[in-house]
Design brief:
The longest helix has 15 residues, at about 100-115. The protein has about 350 residues and is of the alpha+beta class. Helices cover about 25% and strands about 25% of the residues. The protein has a single domain, classed as Deoxyribonuclease I, Chain A.
């Protein structure tokens, strides 16, 4: 005879289902996962800038760096771009007056790769008032299009992506005098400046990039005419050089002078504060360490918006490259200055 099969009663089935549910692994909701994500650079509402004296940056230097990269089997410009990728705006000083565009274009390409797919690296450079001066040099800006736009003299905010969404950075900006100069007779190398629009907080700001004369030629004498040219007029709204000064202002570059020098009192009188306090940025040639506190970023709040330092650091140039590289190579072939990086927070005044 066949044995009768055991039947599973409805009660037993319910008990089985309940026990299985107790043992089943807990699943987290998508909302929990989203809240736990780390905020990336492109999501931040803080502005990050980098300023660097790039030491005679031009096509000839580009060629030498490419040769050195082949010899050392390391892409030098790519290393720089990777270390600059957290920035929204990059200000470079000491760009050659002649034969420089291919060098800037290569840097832009490497920077765009570092910023990632879908990003557009925009760029612009200054037109020196005089090419005859031995001190003449250009200044260059690079910025992340997804977060920063350029503001024209007429106040129009523009992107360097064309209407079809393609990369139009070179066409849009090469023939446009976007990087203007502060023509100040007392300053040998006229600083350049631009106005930008920071998209995450819908905030306009001015950015001045400069390179004062060498330390042996009294750069402190250039500070008074510089910061006087950046002063606000009595009505607090219009400056003949910058335009509307209700916007926050950033002034960065190679001052060839420590912020502790008494001559910087004119900067403080005009509402500026130093981001770095006597922090060394230039390089020793004979030892693998930093030397002088020459580079800095000075900031001034807007009429309605404060500008606060969230984070700052010196990107010590020797530390960006392999330790077995001679310091003389880095000093002479790459730069004798370290890049400086700072992150700022915009807040509306109460």
């Amino acid at each position: 005879m066949f044995k009768s099969r055991k039947r599973i009663t409805p009660l037993a089935l319910l008990i089985f289902i309940a026990l299985y549910a107790l043992k089943a692994p807990e699943k987290h909701s998508s909302s929990t996962e989203t809240s736990a994500r780390t905020i990336t650079a492109t999501q931040s509402e803080n502005l990050t800038v980098i300023s660097w004296n790039a030491l005679n940056f031009g096509d000839d230097k580009k060629k030498k760096l490419e040769e050195a990269s082949f010899e050392k089997k390391v892409d030098i410009i790519n290393i720089l771009a990777e270390n600059f990728k957290k920035a929204d705006v990059i200000a470079l000083q000491e760009i050659n007056t002649q034969k420089f565009e291919s060098a800037l274009e290569l840097f832009r390409e490497k920077l765009q790769e570092a910023w990632g797919e879908g990003e557009t690296a925009c760029w612009g450079f200054s037109q020196p008032a005089s090419f005859q001066s031995r001190e003449a040099e250009r200044f260059a800006f690079f910025w992340r299009d997804s977060r920063v736009n350029y503001v024209t003299t007429e106040g129009k905010t523009i992107s360097c992506k064309n209407s079809s969404g393609g990369d139009n950075s070179k066409v849009a900006f090469i023939n446009t005098p976007i990087i203007k100069e502060l023509i100040i007779e007392e300053i040998g190398r006229p600083p350049s400046f631009a106005t930008f629009f920071f998209k995450p907080t819908a905030q306009k700001f001015h950015y001045v990039s400069l390179h004062l004369r060498p330390s042996g030629k009294k750069p402190q004498e250039e500070l008074t005419p510089l910061f006087k040219s950046l002063s606000r007029e009595k009505n607090g709204l219009q400056n003949p050089t910058l335009g509307p000064t209700q916007y926050p202002t950033i002034v960065s570059g190679d001052f060839n002078l420590s912020d502790a020098h008494p001559a910087f009192e004119i900067a403080r009188t005009n509402g500026f504060e130093s981001t770095f306090e006597n922090e060394k940025t230039s390089l020793h040639m004979k030892t693998r360490e930093l030397n002088k506190a020459y580079d800095n970023i000075w900031i001034r709040a807007g009429r309605e918006t404060t500008l606060n330092v969230v984070e700052k650091k010196v990107l010590a140039l020797y530390d960006l490259f392999p330790k077995d590289w001679e310091q003389k190579f880095i000093f002479h072939r790459i730069s004798d200055h370290s890049p400086i990086q700072a992150t700022f927070e915009f807040n509306f005044k109460k």
